[in-house]
Structure formats: C-alpha cells, structure tokens
TrEMBL record, chain A:
GO terms for molecular function: kinase activity. Pfam families: AAA_33, Metallophos, PNKP_ligase. InterPro entries: Ap4A_hydrolase, Calcineurin-like_PHP, Metallo-depent_PP-like, MPP_PrpE-like, P-loop_NTPase, PNKP_bac, PNKP_ligase_dom. Residues 178-372 form the Calcineurin-like phosphoesterase domain. This is Polynucleotide kinase-phosphatase. NCBIfam families: bacter_Pnkp (TIGR04075). Keywords: Kinase, Transferase. Residues 460-836 form the Polynucleotide kinase-phosphatase ligase domain.
Amino acid sequence: MNLDIPELSLIALIGISGSGKSTFARRHFAPTEVLSSDAFRAMVADDENDQSASKDAFEALHHVAAIRLRAGRRVVVDATNVQKHARAELVKLARAHDVLPVAIVLDTPEAIAWERTEARADRDFGRHVLRRQQQDLRRSLRDLGREGFRKVHIVADPDDVTITYEKAWNDKRDITGPFDIIGDVHGCRSELETLLTTLGWRLERDEAGRPVNAVHPEGRRAVFVGDLVDRGPDSPGVLRLVMGMTAAGTALCVPGNHEQKLLRKLRGRKVSVTHGLAETLEQLAVEPPEFVDAAATWIDGLVSHLRLDGGRLVVAHAGLKEEFHGRASGRVRAFCLYGETTGETDEYGLPVRYPWANDYRGSAMVVYGHVPNPKPEWVNNTICLDTGCVFGGQLTALRYPEKALVSVPAEKTHYEPVKPLVEATPARDATTLDLADVTGRRHIRTDYGTVLVDAENAAAALEVMSRFAVDPRYLLWLPPTMSPPSTSRLDGYLEHPAEAFADYRAAGVERVVCEEKHMGSRAVVLVCRDAATAARRFGVDDASSGAVYTRTGRPFFADPALTETLLARVRAAATPAFGELDTDWLLLDCELLPWSAKATSLIKGQYAAVGAAARAALPAALRALDAGLDRGLDLAALRDRTAARATNADAFTDAYRRYCWPVDGLDGIQLAPFMALASEGASHAARDHGWHLEHCDRLVAGDPDLFRRTERRTVDLSDEASVEAATAWWRELTGAGGEGIVIKPCDGLLHRANGKLVQPGIKCRGREYLRIIYGPDYTEPRHLDRLRDRGLHRKRNLALREHGLGLAALDAVAAGAPLWRVHELVFAVLALESEPTDPRL
Amino acid sequence: MTISTTHVPATDLGFLLVKHPDRVQSFDTTGGTAHVWYPEAGAERCTVALLLDVDPVALARPSKGHRSPDSFSLGRYVNDRPYAASSLLTVALGKVFRSALKGASRDRPELVDVPLPLEIKVAALPCRGGAAIVERLFGPLGWTVTAEPVPLDPAFPAWGDSRYVQLTLTGRQKLSDALNHLYVLLPVLDDAKHYWVSADEVDKLLRAGEGWLPEHPAKELIARRYLANRRSLAQSALERLRAADELEAIAEPPAAEELAEVEAAERRKPLVRYRQEAVLAALAESGATRVLDLGCGSGALLLRLLADRRYTEIVGADVSSVNLQLAERRLKLDRLPERQRNRITLIQSALTYHDDRLAGYDAAVLMEVIEHVDEVRLPALERAVFGHASPATVIVTTPNIEYNGRYDGLAGGHLRHDDHRFEWTRAQFAAWAARVADAYGYGVDLRPVGEDDPEVGSPTQLAYFRKAA
C-alpha cells in the first residue's frame, strides 16, 4: 500500500494502544520527526506510562510541534489520537502553521493489540481500556476528513506500506529561470504583445492571427503575477495567449483576485459584477463555450503562489510574507490573492492595505502585483510590478535574475481608475528599521562567515546608533578595527615592520603595500553629486548631500553647514571619478587631520594633563635628589632613573604636540583618503590598493590644500632589499614624528589564503608615537619586557570579524539590498567594537 | 613631596618621623616604591622628601577578580598617577610615616603635641575645582597656602591651566595634624581614588579627621569627595560627624560648592514637578490605563505612574541601559509585591526604530525626549511612535527656547542641556505638532507648562495628541 503525503505536513498517527504506532513511526520516519506522547510523559514525569502527566506531556509535545512546523519541518505525532478533542488540537496546530494535517490510522485488530499489551511488563491497564479506545476509534473513522485532515490513510497491514512524499503544488524550486515576470495585464493584450516582443519573445499566432503562444529564443520563461482579466479591451485574448504559453511550458502563472472572481461567476456563483468584470463577461460572451470552459478549468488549476529558483524567488499576486512561503492553507491563499488589509477603508472606499513588505525580512525575492503604482519600487527585496497599464500607465516586466525592469506604455487609458494612480498608494517606506533587526543575541550570516553579536554589545551599540550616529541610510560601512603586528623582540621596540612582514609571509601573502599612517581621526566620507542624488539614492531629504562620519558613525562635525562645505570640496575634486565610475556618489575611507580637530578634549584631559603633571613633578624631584646627592646620600640610581623619566615625559609631550594644530572652520583641516570603497552598484573591495591609491592621488591633485597624499612603498616579501628599504622608510617616517605605517596585501581587501580572509591591514606604529599609547616611560627596559606580553589573538579575531561584516555591507550596498540588511551588518560592526579589548592594541 | 621645619634643632624631624636624616630608605607600597631621604638636614632647617616611584605597568594591570568598570579604558594606561600627588601618595605616606601620623614618638614624645614651624611642598597636586579650593580646604586649618597653577601645555597657551597646582603650605602645626591634613585632603582635592571605596573608609576618615574635621567649614565637601561620591556612605559619615558635635543645635550650612548645586537643583525643581503634573493630568484626561513612558530616563515619572492604581500596565522604555538600571533601583522593582511588579515593565528600546513591543497601548508619554533626537532623525521617531506604536494618546513635552532668556546664563542662544539637539520656539513646536498630527491622523492640543509669561510663554510646552476617531 502506498501512502501519498504532502512533503510538509503534520501527520497524526491514530490507533489504539498496542496497535504498532511506534514501530510504524520508527520504520517510516526519522527519529527526530516523531513526537511520541510516551516520550513526552517520560520527559516531564520520569514515567512514560504515568497517565496523570498526560496534560503536561501534551502541552510540551504541542509546543515542540509548533516550533518544528514554524521552521518548516515535518511532525509525526505518535499518540493514540483516538479521541476527537485530541485530534482537534493537532488540526488546529497544523492550520496555525499553514501546513496540511494528515491522518494515518493503524487499524490493528483489538485482539492483536491486547496480545502485545499483555506481553509488555510496563503496561498494566485492563482490556476494557483497549475496548473503549477501539470504540472511540470506530466512531471517529468516518469523520476524519470533516475534522480537517486533508488526507486520511487507513492501514490494515502495517508491514505493507510505502510512503511517497508529494511536493507542494507551489514548490517549483527546480525551475531556475531565467524569468521574465510580468505585472497585471488586465486585458491589455496589445501592450502584452508589445512587452513580450520588447523582451525578445517570438509570438505564435493561430489562423485568425491571434497570439496563442510565445517562445523566447534564449529559453526564458514568463511568469504572470495574475489579474490577466477585467477592465481592459481583450481579456479573452490575454487568456488565450497565457493559457497557450503555460500549456507549452513557456510560462507560469499565479491567479489574481480578478481570475478568482471570474471563476466564481463562471461557476454560477453570485458575485457583484464590478471593477471591470462586466467587460470581461461581455468579451467572453462572443467566445465559444469550449473556450470559456477551458479558461475556467485553467484558472481553477492555478496555484496561488510559486516558489522558484531554489526558493530564491517567490511570485504571488498580492505578495506573500515569509512565514507563508511554501505553505498551504486558506489564509495563505487569501493573502496571495488579496494581500493583507487593515480592515479599514480609505476615502475612496477601497480597503487600506497593510504594508507587509515593510516588515519583510526574508531572503527570497518576492515579486507581485495587485496594487497599481506609478513606478515599481524595491522594498526589502520585494517588488510590485503593477504599473496600472489598464489605467493608462505602463505594463512592466522584471527580468530575473538580472533585476532589470522593462516597461511599455499603455496605448490609452482603457479604464478610469477609482482613485488617481499618482496617489494610489501611500509613500512606501523602505527606510523603516525595526528594533528586531539589530537587538538581542544574533548570529549574522554573510558570505565571509557567520558572526555572533552578543545582546549586551548590541544594547551598547543601540545607544550609540540611535542617539549619536548619522542617519542609518547614510551609514553604509564602518571601518573595522586593525591589529598591530606580532610583538617585536628588538631592543627598545614593541612594534617593528619585521614582524608585520613575517605575519603576512606566514599567511601566504607575497606582496604588500606599506602606506603612511596619518595621525588624525578616521573619517568615512559619503559624497553625493548633489542633495537631490542623496534624496533619490539614499532617501535622505534634509538637503544634505552626504555625510562625514567617525569610526562609530557619529557625524564628524557638529555643524551640518561645515559638513556640507567639506563635501562640496570633496565633490569638486571627485567629479572626474563620478564620471569614470559611472556613479552619482562615492564612499571614501580617510583620515581627517589634525587629531586635535576631533580629539581636543581627550588630548587636553588626558595627554596634555599627564605632560603638565610630569613637568611639575619631575624637576622638583630632581632638585631634591640633587640636594641629597650633595649631602653624600646614596641616590645616584634614583636620580638617573628620574632624569630618564623627565626626558621620556618631554618626548611624550612632543609626540602628541605634533598632531595638534589650530583649526578654524575648514581652515587647517586636511583629509587623507586611502580607499574608494564603493560607488553606485559597485563595491570596490576587490580592487587592489594601487587602484585605490591612484583614485586618491587624483583627489589630491584636484585639491592639494584639502587632500593630503598617502605616501606608500610596495614590498616584495621575498626580496630582502625591498623589505629593508621599506623598514628604513618606516624608521625615517617615525623618526620624524610620524605615527607609523599600515601594511596591506597588495591585492586589496579580499585577499584570501587557504580560503580564509587575511588581515586587511596591520598597523606598525613608531617608537615615539607609542608613548601616547603605552605611557611616557614604556621604552624603559624594565617596563618594555612586561609590556611585550600582550594578547593579540582577540584583537586579530575581532579585526577579521569586523572586516567580514564590512565587506558584506559593501556587497549589500552594491546589490541594492534593503536598508535593514545593510544596517544589520553595520550595526554589528559597531556592536563588536564595544567588546572589551586592550585599547592599546 | 617635601616637609621642612625650622624648629631647632631641625633634625628632630628625623626622630618624629622615625627616619634617619643620613639614610635613604625605600618601602614597597601599593602602586610602587616610596623613597625617603633628606635633601637638607641642618640644625636650623631640615627637609624630608617623599618620592613615590609608581610602577605604571603594574598599576595598569587589573588585579585578578577585581576588574573595575574602566578596565579597558586607555586612561588606565596613560595617566598622571606616576607624577601627581594622588591617593597613591597618601597611602605611601600612611605606611612610611605611620607612627608620626598617629602622633606617637618614642624618641621625642614631648614634641608630639607641639606645633612646629612647617613648610610642605607638593610638586604636582591635582585638584578638581582649581586653586581656590586648595585655600578653602587648607586655609581654615591654619595654613598659609600658595597654589601655583601649572599650565596645561606651554606650546598651546590657549588651552589654559591644567588641574595641577604646585602647592606650598606654611604654618605652625603639630606634625601629626599636618600629616593627617595631607592624608585626607590630597585625595579630596584629586577627587579620584585609585581603590574602591568600602565601608571602612568611613572609619579611616573619622580617625584621620579627629580633632579637626568636625569643625572644618567644608566638611561635607571633604566627606563626600573622600568617599568618592558614594552618597549613602557619605551620608552615614556625615551623620556620625553630626553626632560628634551634638551640641550644635543648628545643622551646618552646606559648603558653597554644594550650596550652588542645591540651589540650581531647587531652581529647576518646580518645573520638573509642574511638568510631571501636567503630563499626569493629560494622561488622566485621556482615560488611558495601559501607558508607555518613552525615554523614561531614571524613572521619575514611572514612580508617579506606579503610585496611581488606574494605570494597570506601565512600560518604561529607554535606550540607555544605565538609565534603566537606575530606574530599576529607584522603583525598587526587586522588592515590589508581585501584583505591583506585574504592572510595570522596563525595556531597552530606541525611538528611531520600530518596536513591536510598543504597539497596542492606550497612551505614550515623551517627556523631554524629542529634543535629544537629532532634528533630521525626528521623522523616524514620528513613524515609530505615531505610525507604528500608534497609541490613542501621545503626550509630548519639550523646552520652549523663547523662555531661556528668563534663566541666568541661558541668554544668547544657549540650550538648557548639553545633549539637547534643538530647542524650539512655540511656533516651531506648534508647526511640528500640527504636521505630525495631520500625517498620522491625530488631533493636537498645545498647552503651556509652568509659569506662562505673557511675552515668552511657558518654560515647557506640551502637545496632547489624540487619535482621530
């Protein structure tokens, strides 16, 4: 006996005790699919036969079943289920998760069941119990279908059973495209012909010259989002063509609410003949009855939504929220046909729609129609293709996977809309971020690995993000933290390029570029061609034309006017790059100088204060020591040490002073760009640093007063002379007060070794500069030896995790991913930055 | 630090301190090594020097199991402790000159209670509040005070003075008193202790302050700062001090610094109360029972809501987890009876994000919240509050900038709080409220809060939004 079972279903095994349910379940299902009441009784009460624990056991069982169904996993309930109320719970559960309930009845004779029960030592109930169960079962059998079970299988011989899983009707994941997905046609046959031709389809016509099929030379397949009929001039013509295409296998189609209503009318149901149905009926009246019958049968066979291309694409007439993808139930079908409404009506008497797409967070692209819009807009990886052709708008197709939109204009206004198309929908809101997108403990999957963000780090990031950061729509990327090299053992040094080179050599990198590290503050610059571009591309319409933000996403300047002045200068220098990169905006990674521009309060409160205290304390100490020495006291060693400390303190003061100079507005501000991270449609992460620096050099050439060049040396790590030259350069730079250098793989940010990303950069700071970080006296051997013990593992790991998130954010921006996804990634970088690490690294 | 005397014979200082003038001695102490020697040791004048050679590396390492909240701040590693006269120095002082501090001397017991001519120099004394406060603390004790401010950086004269002074104290004092003055007042001036203040600090303060602290006019300030601003500890210390001078029937007036703070708080206080009253009145008028306090801060309004039984469900939301902890403590959530406890929930939320947990309530209060959000981000807040959470009633209060001229020091466009991103005139607020009401289907009613000045209006303005039927 073969049992057909829908792939995703809740299967209730029904049978009296001893009927062999557990054996059956073991034989036909995976152990994790089977939820047995005995097992749950044991779980909650340590005894699988403790009937007093049944209530708790079923509560737990239903809970687990719900979790599995929510995740789209099969559930097999192994319990007697002979009573109606027990089964009702299961049907309810299945419906709540929009899966089909299936009943498998093990109709084992009571005598055999009793034999088995007697053979088991742990079963001590009397035969009357079995008899009662058997009565219950008998009474139930004929009602199972009415109770809601979509399939009922009665098994007389459990040994002779095979199970076949039926794919859901909506499961067309094996059809991978490419597709041309076509919006609401509404009887506009002529425009449909034009659109198909524009898309490269060849129409096939019958002897009367009517199109009956279309074929694409590249084997593309059309997908219609429904609402082929009503309102327009030739609904039968559209049906004829699309029916022909589906029959020929060149098209798929989901039903729209208009097909649904037409079908009800054709089947003789009472429906109100409104919204253009009258026109269709009139047009069908002149068609032969066979055609009308065929159309009705065809509509009846349409599946309300389709999952395509491995589940990456979902098509439904009115769209579909994620939890309904692949599910089957009345409410899923209703959602597909009518969408979700709030229950209110608007001033035109039309139902107010719930903007489900704003909440959509699924990875599958959802393409739909139903609501006419002046032009299609992406909202969270969903798009509505109804551009109101019948109302005089356009007929639109989406090419998948290219994501290209192709439209043809309506030949005329075929039907007057109830409300004007331009304001047909409220401004859709793709910019709304949900707290659930960022808070709590989260595993974030990217092409570069999975990153865990802890709840408390997310909480800290939320505070910074919501109170201090720039508009999230401008926040495309945050710089990852950067690790120093392995600690140097060289006398007097904590960091030295030799270790950085060795680190990269060990990671399998052959060529690196050493870039001068400017001592200022990190600044990310997003510059748009103008405020209109910012409003169009990023949706920020406060007249700003971009943003200049710090490593935690805060605006660099408190005064927006100053930001705009800086952006104007950047824009002027970047205009050639706009043309060359075919973009209206550019994302630059820079250092903004001087350090004191942003960090004055830190410098004064921490660094200058230390210098002042040292200048006050040490000379006085030296005077007292000298006086003691004059008295012949044994103070020579302490005096020498104190004198050295005074020298160190001066060196410390010199170190921070170099990075401070007064600024007034933009006067004195310098910007040192070193990467052009992204532009429209492109992440430049894969470009090598030569490309990036060349673009940056052009900015410098364009405005040498504002921009500062980043000096660099390319190093072949297998060439000693090349390595020595770079080391000498580092010594020279840092000797003259430079902060140090950053060493990066020449290939750019995507350099991998053994399949893993390597550190995108290693900073190698100068000996004098490090006084600011490790304290004035860190170079003293007695301190240095202890400071060398610094755990780098955590920092390196953090740098790589943040780097991966940053790359994914740039990819997401390039792919036009929904805002919530970009924000999730950028937010995660900020959250990771709040992890405790040694701030000196 | 040096201590000199011109008592004759001056070298008696050595006996009192139990440190031989011709020897250099070193002691291990918290944070480093203390060195003691005598730069001069004549019969007319004798000077002892105490130098604490701080080990900055050891200092920066958090001791096991005792990780302070700032374990990972850079300030731990680069700081003034190796140079400044901080609590580390006073700990060394307490250890090196222990018997002198107690006023004990085996060799010169007769000198212990004799005021000696003393001169004390501290090379780099950090003091919060500037040089004036040094005079306020040491002056009343009979010292002649010279405090030279140290410039922050001579290369940047515009940066002004640092918080360090070079201190010279001269006067006739018992040596033990002088040492105790330093022992207590150096950390008080620094106002940052290197160790966590525990309960026995109170006893230490009382012991070291015996005989001089109860009469000191700035004793509240001293106690508060010495105990690292731990209010409850500070209070118990003050209570014990008061008990010590029981005879005084009238409480000591607060020190000037504190007085100013109290006055500032008092000045603002009526407005806080008016504002709460106005918000509570509007809430009552709305008939709401399930209410949101969005941006609840440390829970001042929540406390009032909790006291009113008509509110059956109260949610306090704030983006700051510190604020939420404060609110939890203030509301004593862990001690509320279950029925009360179940009425209130505190959640972290951010008003520029949609938060499903905030949907479905009767009313939301945004009391002094919107001005903490960048003006360009307000549309996101409007969507989240009016569009998404969408309670029937929304009550918003915000400062009226026109009134700022009525406050001292707020003329010339100054805002009332560092974190205020904007403050609006009445017209600006009215325009905003009207636009939001229109966009989200609310009606709005604007009300003054506090004294309604005929010219500039009230200090706070309130908008009462009701969803249109």
